[in-house]
Design brief:
By secondary structure, the chain is mostly helical. The protein has a single domain (4-148), classed as Orthogonal Bundle (Arc Repressor Mutant, subunit A), CATH 1.10.10.60. It is built from nine helices and two strands. The protein has helices at 11-19, 23-30, 34-46, 54-61, 65-76, 80-96, 103-109, 115-126, 130-135, and strands at residues 4-5, 147-148. It has a two-stranded antiparallel sheet. Helix 1 runs antiparallel to helix 6, helix 3 (34-46) crosses helix 4 and helix 7 crosses helix 8 (115-126). The longest helix is centred in the middle third of the chain and has 17 residues, at 80-96.
Length: 149
């Protein structure tokens, strides 16, 4: 049986798993609408803030909450919350490559308000717990984001 192992060139595959496309493509789509581009910049700058919300993003972009989610779904297929969560997970996965951070530190520094919120979101999107992901060094067939070795 073949294992699945993380390789140096799989960042784009991780992005595709999380966003259904490379981030560069996603940013390109968002840049066609100045309001959405501003929302993406807010996510990049403020994803660490566990209080970042749809309401704050809507105010920042100058549209209503419902309209912002409508625009995001039309452009990316994700709501604001889904986009923010996936961006936080991407940041967490970068941090997980380093053994210098505990899972609690990763959870908090990537914007999740608690370890349980991080674990729940990670498991839902990735299909495994962060602890399992870390213990296997990224080796797990059900991640669906790694190359076969």
């Amino acid at each position: 049986m073949h294992g699945i192992a993380i390789k140096a060139g799989t960042i784009q595959e991780i992005e595709k798993k999380l966003f259904s496309q490379p981030i560069s493509d996603l940013i390109g789509k968002l840049s066609y609408d100045q309001r959405l581009e501003r929302v993406w910049q807010l996510v990049e700058r403020c994803h660490i803030d566990s209080d970042l919300s749809l309401e704050k993003a809507a105010k920042f972009s100058g549209v209503s909450k419902n309209h912002l989610n409508y625009l995001l779904r039309q452009t990316t297929a994700f709501t604001f919350h889904q986009l923010l969560t996936r961006y936080r997970l991407l940041q967490a996965m970068y941090m997980m490559k380093s053994k210098n951070y505990s899972l609690l530190e990763i959870a908090l520094q990537s914007g999740f308000g608690s370890l349980s919120a991080f674990e729940r979101n990670f498991s839902t999107v990735i299909g495994a717990t962060p602890l399992h992901f870390r213990r296997t060094g990224g080796i797990a067939e059900n991640f669906g984001i790694f190359d076969e070795t």
